[in-house]
Structure formats: structure tokens, C-alpha cells
Design brief:
about 220 residues; mainly alpha; Rossmann fold; two-stranded parallel ribbon; binds BIS(adenosine)-5'-pentaphosphate
Amino acid sequence: MGPPGAGKGSVSERLADKFGMAHLSSGDILRAERSSGSELGETLKKYMDAGELVPDEIVIKIIIKSISSLDSSKGLLLDGFPRTVIQAKQLDDALAKAGLPIQAVLLLDAPEEVLLKRITGRRICPKCGRVYHIETMPPAKDNICDTCGTKLIHRDDDTEQVVRERINLYHKETEPVIEYYRKSGVKIIEVDADATIDEVVERAIEGIRQANLLEKEGRTSA
Ligand code: AP5
């Protein structure tokens, strides 16, 4: 969890790679539906371009269906879901049925001016989803994806005005989810994400190690 630009996508991709876990990004799933041209995609576009949250009744159905289609035998890293207390409660119910309780919440944070700089400079590959930053993580060839050679794009919701709205909504709707997990006794691993990506990933791994999650899973080599 964390506000827009904290590095949820970048960090979870690397952690998933390292630990062989499945990685599910609610933003990526919703964007894929959006670009499919479906009627549902048109509805999603309206909320996402304005920086608003997609209504719970829509997002819960889509994400819980996606979770059940993944191979989570080595664990599951959820990125961007849940974002409201209602989503968290429904997720708890679904995971309890699947016998997959939440082990920890990894919480990334950075000052607002850092978040704004990261988001407004972000570029993404519309084909393979790889994420870049014009200053801190530029592609080797200007505006072209290193992985698949596709022209990079600027997300429609990555303007300063929309990001400010997304940050406000994070404080209003998503911070209460952290409190919900704290009260439920779930471990919260707080990571200061105002550092280079390599350092943030190291800090996250150290937090996971200190929470004894690796030993429980038998992943002592990380
Ligand atoms: P989503 O795509 O999840 O957006 P977000 O939460 O606003 O998060 P971001 O993807 O913007 O940031 P991030 O923290 O993943 O940062 P990243 O690693 O990319 O959701 C988009 C929309 O979908 C929402 O607004 C909503 O409408 C809808 N939605 C999604 N889930 C929903 C839900 N559960 N309920 C309802 N609606 C939902 O990094 C950002 C940039 O910074 C990149 O350029 C990266 O290269 C750079 N960077 C990252 N870390 C570092 C670092 N340490 N140093 C330097 N640069 C860095």
C-alpha cells in the first residue's frame, strides 16, 4: 500500500520476481479492461481519468475474480487493492474461503513533492507494462521501451491536477484501511520510500525479514 508514486508497482514487481510470488496490480487490471473497448472499460475510464476510485461494487468483482485465476502457491502480492475499508473486508472474506490469510501489509511512503515529481515524469509501455521515469529510470533509447521496442506513453491520469486528487483520496479512503489492518492484528511493515529504487527494495526486504515472514515460508535465501 502507499500513495500514488510511492513505488508500489516498481517495488512489488521486483519483490515478486525475487520471491517467485504472483503479483496482481489492480491499476493494471483496470487499465487492461479500459483499453479492451468494452462497455465496462468506458465506465472505468470516466473514474480513472478523473483520479477517482472505481466504485467498490465494480472493482471488488473484477479483482477477486482475477485473484482466483492466479497461481498463488508461492504467495500473492497485491498492489493497489484494497483501497477502501469495504474492499478490505470483502477481500478478507474471499481469502478466508481460499485459506490464504493476509500475512503483512507493506506500506511505502514519501513526501508529497517527491510523489508529484515521480508521477508527472512517469512513462509506461502500453504493450508490456514496463514503467520508466524520464529522469530517474529513462529508457536507453528516448521514449522507446527497452524490453519490447514500443513507443512509451504518459498515463492520462498522471497530470499534476489529477495526481493531487488521487493523493487526497488516498488520505481520505485508503489510510483508514491501514488502521483497519492494524486493529485486525496484521503486521504493517513501514518503508521510507524516499530513496533510490534499489534502496527501497532493500528496505522492503529487510522489513519482511524482520517480520519473520521469510522463515515462515522457508524463503531464508532472500
Ligand atoms: P494505480 O495504477 O494503482 O495508481 P496509484 O495507486 O495512483 O499508483 P501509481 O501506479 O500511480 O504509483 P505507484 O505507487 O505504483 O508508483 P510506480 O511504481 O508506478 O491506479 C490507477 C487508478 O485505477 C486509480 O486512480 C483508480 O481510479 C483505479 N483503481 C486502482 N485500484 C483501485 C481500487 N482498489 N479501488 C478503486 N479504484 C482503483 O512509480 C511511479 C514513478 O516513480 C515511476 O515513473 C517510477 O519509475 C518512479 N519511481 C518509483 N520508485 C522510485 C524511486 N524509489 N526513486 C525514483 N523513482 C521512482
